[in-house]
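Schema walk-through. Below, the input block comes first and the output block second. Nothing else is stored per chain. Lengths vary across the set, and this one has 253 residues.
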Amino acid sequence: METIKIMPCLDMKDGRVVKGVHFVDLKDAGDPVTNAAFYQHEGADELAMLDIAATVENRKTRLEWVKNVSSVISIPLTVGGGIGTLKDIELVLDAGADKVSMNSAAVKNPTLVQEAAKRIGSAKITVAIDAKRNKAMSSGFELVVSGGTRPVGKDAVEWAKQCEDRGAGVILPTSMDGDGTQTGYDLEFTKAISDAVNLPVIASGGAGTLEHFYEGAVVGGAQVLLAASVFHYRILRIQQVKEYLRGKGLKLS
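--- output ---
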């Protein structure tokens, strides 16, 4: 049995952690450094920090945010948003990130995935795949980019396979239909991705109850369970989630 990991996510805008529903209606969710330190203390296995406005605002990731957050934690930090070149990746890693997450840039320039994997190793390359339901796609899920604002007419599951072939080390699928709703991960989408690739998959978007985390691992096939709202608003605590999953027979770190 694979070890399941818990990964809180800091969605960043204007220097603050924010959280919305379906990628919009953003509300303040606190200071990133305070949240990062709190989550490490709570037992998080990894942390994600996504600069959600970088691509839409056509700018790079704010490196000072990476430096500030990485300085207060020792758990692995994955940083995404506005990463479009090998130089961007190196700058983010130099600022203290352990891994990078690419989304729009990988879709725009798929060779970036293989170049990055060759340069820094597959284990440090996460490809984030945002999707929404579309029956015209063979899997039923269409890839969207630019912070969920632009559908690209490409099958999201097929894209995950291509990313694996190009050297990605982790896939982070987020269903826009479930994001921020706390109604559960999109298990159909998560499972479609985890069935299609032989890589660790991060379940993301919609976790709201202890049962949702269990379903993400067992039904969705994810090895990493990412959540934001339930942790930011202290609806659930990380140790509470871990104890519940252990009680269900799952192996956790």
